[in-house]
Design brief:
Helix content: 25-40%
Number of helices: 13
Order of helices and strands: EHHEHEHEHEHEEEEEHEEHHEEEHEHHEH
Largest sheet: 7 strands, mixed
CATH topology of the largest domain: Aspartate Aminotransferase, domain 2
Radius of gyration: 21 Å
Oligomer: single chain
Length: 386
């Protein structure tokens, strides 16, 4: 059996290992100086004022919704072509969730569809969203400038789910700059662009949100007298100001993340080389290759193709898996999951997302993928489709 090729995986070098070892030998394993160093590195890279490291991107999405005071009487809208966390974060807050269809060319939220949905809701006296979460699927950015204009008109907040997006750009500015959003969320899971094993980050330019996020990740507690309700009783004193959570990242994770940040641009550049090579290898294969919008420099977390007909997807997928090639599918529309069907959602809500899902296969794409492995993927795919 040939060696296994996963759809994604981390790239760890000696510098990464040494960074973690140094923390193991230090006085801090949990909340120490490595956290702030990692946060500063991400903030500087993104050109944003603040960054808050957390335990994972799901926690980051939940905290972002809590910071914007999303509650049981509110609505959150997001894209269906995403992992369930992009919607679940609204449900954690007791809010209702709805979905906006994707652009069939880019696979991210169709801002024209969003505008139509907003206009229809307003004209019919229905609830408008308090938060809209555009998802930077596969690393490609939504049309954030136009989305931000709609946010001004309709009065909603924008939280960018850029779990796939660190290292990418929109209109030549880094994803995470928050120029068109209140907050941006990153993921550092091992299959993402950089990794902290598990981990996430929230960026923002708003100091009020930053201070609230710091409290929310650590039980709602502050030790800063500026925010206390009562005079401090001494150096030991702290106050819980709200019902927070334990969503903290460790110094071990942050040290790995800071080390990985030093290679972020190389990681993304290599993904572009590999994606361009896939484009060339697949030019004569009957699949739809992913398009890249000219306003977006994708982080290329994924390389999703579509086979020509839905009935070809499963047999092609099975042939690839049988050949020890770990292809995957990203994603079943969230509202088709049993939990959301129980809330009343049904097929037909977002036709573009459903059509994409029925034909989608994510091919392996990661920094250490070799040309020989790429050739093997493509040749196996050709045989499967033949």
């Amino acid at each position: 059996m040939p060696s296994f090729i996963p759809y994604g995986r981390q790239s760890i070098n000696e510098a990464d290992i040494q960074a973690v070892v140094e923390v193991l030998k230090s006085d801090f394993l949990t909340q120490g100086p490595a956290i702030e160093r990692f946060e500063q590195a991400v903030a500087q890279y993104c050109g944003v004022k603040y960054a808050v490291a957390v335990s994972n991107a799901t926690a980051a999405l939940h905290m972002a919704c809590l910071a914007l005071e999303l509650g049981p009487n509110d609505f959150l809208w997001t894209a269906p072509n995403t992992f369930v966390a992009s919607a679940n974060c609204g449900r954690y807050c007791g809010a209702s969730v709805d979905f906006v269809d994707i652009d069939p060319a880019t696979y991210v939220m169709d801002v024209s569809a969003l505008e139509t949905k907003l206009e229809t809701a307003k004209s019919r006296g229905k609830a408008l969203p308090k938060i809209v979460i555009p998802v930077q699927f596969a690393g490609q950015c939504v049309d954030m400038q136009r989305l931000a204009q709609l946010a001004t008109v309709y009065g909603f907040s924008v939280v960018e789910d850029a779990a796939h997006g660190i290292g990418g750009q929109y209109r030549q500015k880094p994803i995470g700059s928050c120029e068109y959003s209140e907050m941006t969320v990153f993921s550092f899971h091992p299959v993402k662009i950089i990794t902290t094993a598990e981990g996430g980050m929230i960026t923002t330019n708003r100091e009020d949100l930053y201070q609230k996020l710091l409290r929310l990740r650590s039980h709602g507690i502050t030790r800063d007298e500026c925010f206390m309700c009562n005079p401090s009783e001494g150096p030991w004193y702290y106050e819980q100001l709200e019902l927070g959570l334990n969503y903290r990242m460790t110094d071990l994770q942050a040290a790995l993340g800071h080390s990985q940040m030093q290679r972020l641009d190389d990681f993304v550049a290599k993904r572009h080389v590999l994606a361009q090579r896939y484009d060339a290898l697949l030019a004569e294969v009957p699949v739809i290759r992913p398009q890249q919008h000219p306003d977006s420099y994708s982080a290329l977390h994924l390389y999703p193709i579509q086979v020509s007909r839905p009935e070809l997807r499963k047999p092609a997928f099975e042939v690839l898996r049988a050949a020890n090639i770990g292809v995957n599918v990203h994603y079943m529309p969230v509202y088709l999951q049993p939990y959301y069907r129980d809330l009343g959602f049904a097929p037909g809500l977002c036709p573009n997302a459903e059509a994409y899902y029925q034909r989608a296969i994510s091919l392996p794409l990661y920094y250490d993928l070799t040309e020989a492995e790429q050739d093997r993927v493509v040749e196996t795919l050709k045989a499967a489709l033949a």
